[in-house]
Amino acid sequence: MNVILLGAPGAGKGTQAKRLEESRKLVQLSTGDMLRAAVASGSDLGRQAKGVMDAGQLMPDDLMVQMISERIDQPDCRTGFILDGFPRTTPQAKALDTMLSGKGLRLDAVIEMKVDEDILVDRITGRFSCIACGAGYHDKFQVPVKAGVCDGCGGTEFKRRADDTEETVRTRLEAYRGQTAPILPYYLEQGILKTVDGMAAIDEVTRQIEASLAP
Ligand code: AMP
Fold first, then answer.
1. 44 Cα to the center of ligand 1, angstroms
2. Tens digit of pLDDT per residue, the chain (215 long)?
3. CB–CB of 32/142 below 8 Å?
4. Which residues line ligand 1 (CB under 6 A)?
5. Alpha-carbon span 173 to 189, nearest angstrom
6. Which residues is 109 bridged to in the sheet?
7. CA–CA gap between residue 209 and residue 16 (Å, rounded)
8. Ligand 1, atom 15: nearest CA belongs to which residue?
9. Rounded distance from Cα 53 to ligand 1 centre (Å)
10. pTM (predicted TM-score)
């Protein structure tokens, strides 16, 4: 099964993708994570990505399409994948369709995680994660049981994303509104768009996603 999680920054795509990885044995393909890895490696792509990401803008479509195409060719994607953060523009969505049909693959579902934009700035600027295991936390909504210690692995070092500042978040939300949300009608026409309530509690969102994927 191949699915897309579509939603504004902070909608909870990453959290739900991790859960789908477990429950459905799918691979999470996060273009944001791939770009952050490129930044950390100091490659040419990483240097370009750093400037674009820090400004809250989008990377060029052709680069992103190529990156995801190469990733989908890896053997671990054969059992299915969850696209998280891709496609983000109509040209990316169209290129994805062409690319998948060229590989003999197709999309089974596009899940829109609908959220109220007003709460997103708060959600995003407060989030942090465990460096060791990646577990996600939030200053207000999900603090570790013991302050400074990861509930999952006991790690004591945490990180915040460089682009989770209020100013950058506002630009990222504009990019979502202007360039990503217009993809939704494209998938609606294809009859594969499902919408879940991204404002609900995390477990409830998972339940709605699982229900929307049920045959
Ligand atoms: P994310 O982790 O999905 O929020 O992505 C972080 C940043 O990476 C975005 O704000 C963009 O600058 C860049 N990025 C990630 N995915 C894409 C994409 N599909 N197209 C263009 N830029 C992207």
1. 17
2. 999 999 999 999 999 999 999 999 999 999 999 999 999 999 999 999 999 999 999 999 999 999 999 999 999 999 999 999 999 999 999 999 999 999 999 999 999 999 998 889 999 999 999 999 999 999 998 999 999 999 999 999 999 999 999 999 999 999 999 999 999 999 999 999 999 999 999 999 999 999 999 88
3. no
4. 9, 31-32, 35, 52-53, 56-59, 64, 85-86, 88, 92, 163, 172
5. 24
6. 3
7. 9
8. 32
9. 7
10. 0.93
Catalytic residue among 18, 24, 114, 161: 161
Q: Write the single-letter amino acid at 79.
A: T
- Can 161 be counted among the known catalytic residues? yes
Phi first, then psi, for residue 76 (nearest 5°) are -65, -15
Establish whether 71 is a catalytic residue.
no
The alpha helices in 55-136, defined as continuous H runs, are 61-72, 90-102, 117-125
